[in-house]
Design brief:
Elements (H helix, E strand, L loop, with lengths): L31 H23 L13 H20 L5 H32 L11 H10 L15 H18 L5 H18 L5 H16 L3 H8 L2 H18 L3 H20 L6 H11 L1 H18 L7 H28 L1 H11 L1
Helix pairs in contact: 1-2, 1-10, 1-11, 1-12, 1-13, 2-5, 2-7, 2-10, 3-5, 5-7, 6-7, 9-10, 11-13, 12-13, 13-14
Length: about 350
């Protein structure tokens, strides 16, 4: 989930209407397994976009990667209840303001990145058609339905930022009634799922609505104590069996919305299980955890890196050697960019402030 916020673990409660005001420890304590999960998702996203740029739409296994975008949104929702509510009391007006402001910031980042894309991509000469989304129909597609076309040129990039921003803004608004009614998010999640079902009966769907519902499921999951989540996830044989069943189901029925929800949960549990197993100090694992701490920056930088690599290899016959080089370079450069930003922030207060202004 592309978010640069911390994860915490313990539990307290607020007496008023049984709503947790500060349900976890006030100490800043990240959950490495959660950072590992976010970092692994960024790396899988690198794979997904590398396939888009260097293999093409004919790749037969895209259905098995459809969990990626909603997984980021699920984690973003999870951090709202598991992290923000550990930093702020539910009655603190700064909580709603923080969520609302961050949501608007993501919309601004989305717009700036796509304006830059319309300028830079033609200059790179990758042969990728860039369509202008500033028209009434395209604006509706991007900001309302989310049903982006998969052919005829990509309408926008970084589209994941739109439903995440909606979820943050909506959560900021819902924090006001949540002070008095602890099932506020449950009711809204049911309404979103009901709306999806009604659209389905009419033969219609909206990706933005579906992603927002998955984000709300993430919020509800975040109310669960992290200890309970750890205990639930640590059943590898059951998880492996369920994962195998879901792979077979996708092969037969593709991936309708209920299957998408299951795919998100199973993939996140699997990655989280890997992240919570073994030592955290291994080189590869520590790099993935670091990338998870910079998931939003990593998500943005890997797309820029792949654009540049695509331009560099555009006039090259892509044999196995060139494909291998581009594949390794995409992963290595994404991790390297994260390392550079992390070290630069540590050594420069100005860079640190700038980073926080944009990504925090």
């Amino acid at each position: 989930m592309p978010t640069e916020i911390e994860s915490r673990s313990s539990d307290t409660s607020l007496a008023r209407v049984d709503v947790p005001a500060n349900p976890r420890s006030s100490k800043s304590q990240r959950i490495p397994a959660l950072d590992f999960t976010k970092g692994a998702l960024v790396l899988i996203m690198v794979l997904y976009h590398w396939i888009n740029y260097f293999v093409g739409s004919q790749w037969a296994y895209y259905e098995y990667l459809h969990f990626l975008t909603p997984s980021f949104i699920f984690i973003a929702g999870f951090t709202i209840s598991s992290v923000y509510l550990s930093k702020y009391a539910v009655t603190d007006s700064r909580l709603s303001k923080r969520l609302f402001t961050r949501g608007l910031k993501l919309v601004a980042i989305f717009l700036v990145l796509n304006v830059a894309r319309t300028i830079i991509v033609p200059v790179l000469g990758t042969g990728v058609l860039v369509r202008n989304f500033v028209s009434l129909g395209n604006v509706f597609t991007v900001f309302v339905s989310g049903n982006l076309p998969i052919t005829g040129g990509k309408l926008v990039a970084f589209s994941i930022l739109v439903p995440i921003s909606y979820m943050l803004i909506l959560s900021g608004v819902l924090m006001v009634p949540y002070r008095f009614f602890k099932y506020t998010f449950h009711v809204v999640c049911v309404l979103l799922l009901s709306s999806i079902a009604i659209l389905g009966l009419r033969g219609e769907h909206s990706y933005n609505l579906e992603f927002l519902a998955i984000g709300m499921l993430g919020v509800l999951t975040g109310f669960t104590p992290i200890v309970a989540i750890n205990n639930f996830v640590r059943h590898p044989y059951r998880l492996a069996f369920a994962y195998a069943c879901h792979i077979v189901a996708i092969a037969i029925w593709k991936i309708p919305f209920p299957f998408l929800v299951v795919a998100v949960l199973l993939n996140l549990m699997t990655i989280y299980l890997v992240g919570s197993s073994g030592r955290e100090s291994g080189t590869m694992k520590s790099e993935v955890i670091l990338l998870g701490k910079y998931s939003l920056f990593g998500y943005i930088s890997q797309i820029a890196i792949l654009q540049i690599l695509s331009a560099a290899f555009h006039h090259t016959t892509l044999g196995s050697a060139a494909l291998g080089i581009s594949f390794v370079a995409a992963f290595a450069l994404t991790i390297a960019c994260t390392e550079i930003v992390d070290r630069t922030r540590a050594n420069s207060a100005t860079v640190d402030r700038l980073y926080k202004a944009v990504f925090a």
